[in-house]
Design a protein that fits this description.
globular; three-stranded antiparallel β-sheet; single chain; mainly alpha; about 375 residues; about 70% helix
């Protein structure tokens, strides 16, 4: 049960804004997948509605449990996440050149989506046990990187899922920069990184799948193969640009409806939205996302303890990077790495993980005045 005094501090604004974005996603999914010949695709928007309802249940479940309980069991939860990442490489279902999903009969789920939350829990517990004024030295930083970051990053990279590896990296960097890392160590790390960039780049390039290399090539020069590797980016730019200032109007877009735009209801859903609602509609959508990000940062600042601060910072960093990378992909300023748009893109596992994230934010925020225990 939740204490009544704590319940009075419940912040409805975060969940209301997240639901607003999710409903915008539903109507955009419907517009993007409305049938021409294949009537089965119309069910996408209904499935998304079901996932929203399920996600709301998990949101309130997370909110009802004090976040310190999650912190206490963070290492165990993290271990379960690593186990699932190993399992997906063994029994996972393959699709579109990747092995990221574990089939459970009537549906499949993507462990890497949930693991980002588990990762935030684990590093939040670790850093909350360090005195706030203590600077992390090289040994301490290397230790936490090897224990919490390196292993899951390698497992996820082997799926392959470059987008999730990038998000984990951004979360990790965001947390260690606020955890008291020595400035000297940061400078030395940047210098070493720049010097080793060619060597690391060769290893990284060699480890990429062919389609991932093609995406990077298309990012550098989409015109190199406009009907092949550059097709996604070119069609996305056409969609966004054709929307103009006010857009063509709901269900009047052509790029998604006529199947010119690939992955129109998942990775490139923003392109469909921008074509129909234009620059003006996109600004309104950006404001909604900005509200959640600023609310998350404010929650991190006002949290009652370091654990709450790191939790709020971690999930806010995750949502921010999701948003920036996805919109960047559609505009051609970021390589296509398969990162969905939070709350809008079709996909049950990603949607559920996003609601778990804002559940943690709400949890930390509503308990910022509670007594320590």
């Amino acid at each position: 049960m939740i204490d009544r005094n704590i319940l009075k501090k419940f912040d409805w604004s975060i969940i209301v804004v997240a639901l607003a974005i999710s409903l915008i996603g539903v109507i955009t999914i419907y517009s993007a997948t409305r049938p021409i010949l294949d009537a089965e695709q119309q069910s996408f928007y209904m499935k998304q509605i079901y996932w929203i309802c399920l996600s709301l249940l998990f949101f309130f479940l997370v909110v009802s449990i004090d976040y310190m309980w999650f912190i206490r069991y963070a290492y165990f939860i993290y271990s379960v996440g690593v186990f699932l990442l190993i399992a997906v490489l063994i029994i996972g279902r393959k699709g579109m050149g990747a092995q990221r999903w574990i089939p459970l009969g009537f549906f499949s789920f993507q462990p890497s989506e949930f693991f980002k939350i588990f990762f935030v829990l684990a590093i939040s517990r670790y850093f909350s046990g360090i005195e706030q004024k203590m600077d992390l030295d090289f040994k301490g930083l290397a230790k936490v990187a090897l224990i919490f970051f390196a292993v899951p990053a390698i497992l996820i990279f082997k799926q392959p899922d470059l987008g999730t590896v990038m998000i984990l990296s951004f979360i990790f960097i965001s947390v260690i920069l606020t955890a008291g890392t020595k400035k000297k160590l940061i400078v030395v790390g940047v210098i070493i990184g720049l010097i080793s960039l060619p060597f690391v780049g060769n290893i990284f390039w060699g480890g990429l799948k062919t389609y991932q290399k093609n995406r990077l090539i298309a990012f550098i020069d989409p015109s190199v193969d406009p009907q092949g590797v550059g097709y996604h980016i070119n069609q996305s730019k056409v969609s966004v640009g054709s929307g103009g200032f006010t857009g063509k109007g709901y269900m009047k877009g052509t790029q998604g409806y006529l199947r010119f735009l690939p992955e129109k209801h998942t990775d490139f859903i923003f392109s469909v939205f921008a074509e129909e609602w234009g620059f003006a509609g996109s600004i309104i959508l950006f404001v909604l996302y900005l509200f959640i990000i600023l609310r998350g940062l404010d929650t991190a600042i006002r949290a009652r303890d370091p654990a709450g601060s790191f939790l709020a910072l971690g999930v806010t960093s995750m949502l921010f990077f999701y948003f920036v990378v996805n919109v960047g992909m559609t505009l051609g300023i970021v390589p296509v790495v398969g990162v969905p748009l939070p709350f809008m893109s079709y996909g049950g596992t990603a949607l559920l993980s996003n609601f778990l994230a804002i559940g943690i934010l709400t949890n930390v925020r509503m308990r910022r005045y509670a007594l320590f225990y």
